[in-house]
Design goal:
Layout: H1 8-22, H2 35-44, H3 50-63, H4 67-71, H5 75-82, H6 88-105, H7 114-117, H8 125-136, H9 146-155, H10 163-173, H11 179-192, H12 216-220, H13 222-225
Helix pairs in contact: 1-11, 2-6, 2-8, 5-6, 9-11
Length: about 230
């Protein structure tokens, strides 16, 4: 099996299969106990590592464990608790705004529909996809974070540069039950091997399928062939 003999969809499925073999136990690396805690942790993870978020959330959730408490929290105290995740003014404001809407409009229950989640302050498709997949087991789309964006482009399964376009491309290539499997395992692979500044191509199990390793002539014609 070679990259040249596979269609883009076949290649995506082979990449998925290898990722599942490489990271069989991969799961969401954010720590949470409830859907609202997952929502809050995901909002905090914007432009911040999951490791840092997991250091912040224990104290945050001990002080404000649910939507009701977060909705009526003192904003300055909330800001201080999430300060180290960066952009803490906006994050605290969005967390409180989202929790107030959850309390007032959704009977204190985090919605399990994409359209409703997108109404919440601070929630775009990435956050909504994470919440739906990991809190409710619903694959409504493909989570596109910085790792998924970088690796999907490097692997040559999308030429889009915007998350929504990348997500649409991936949804066409992958079976719906595996949409989150793709994302979570690419995140693991991005952290362990295909790093932003120093991709470990020499030890990468996906190297033979990767567009980064194409000969120049094949790369130029890749759009026509694949």
């Amino acid at each position: 099996m070679t990259r040249k003999s596979l269609s883009k969809k076949q290649r995506a499925l082979e990449i998925l299969s290898r990722l599942q073999h490489l990271y069989p136990d991969a799961t969401c690396s954010l720590d949470y106990s409830t859907p609202v805690q997952l929502l809050v942790a995901t909002i905090l993870s914007a432009q911040c590592t999951d490791e840092r978020v997991n250091k912040v959330t224990p104290a945050l959730f001990e002080r404000f464990p649910d939507a009701e408490n977060l909705a009526k929290a003192d904003l300055l105290e909330l800001e201080e608790l999430v300060r180290s995740t960066g952009f803490y003014h906006n994050k605290a404001k969005n967390i409180q705004g989202a929790c107030r809407m959850i309390v007032n409009d959704f009977n204190s229950i985090v919605p399990n529909q994409m359209e409703q989640l997108l109404k919440l302050p601070g929630v775009a498709r990435k956050t909504a996809n994470v919440v739906l997949a990991h809190a409710y087991g619903i694959n409504a789309g493909v989570t596109v974070d910085t790792h998924v964006k970088r690796l999907s482009q490097r692997l040559g399964v999308t030429t889009n540069t915007e998350p929504v376009g990348i997500e649409k491309d991936l949804m066409k290539l992958l079976p719906q039950p595996d949409w989150e499997n793709w994302s979570i395992r690419l995140i693991y692979h991005g952290r362990a091997v295909c790093k932003a500044r120093s991709p470990g191509c020499n030890v990468c199990e996906l190297a033979d399928l990767c567009a980064m390793n194409l000969p120049q002539a094949e790369s130029k014609n890749s759009k026509k062939k694949y």
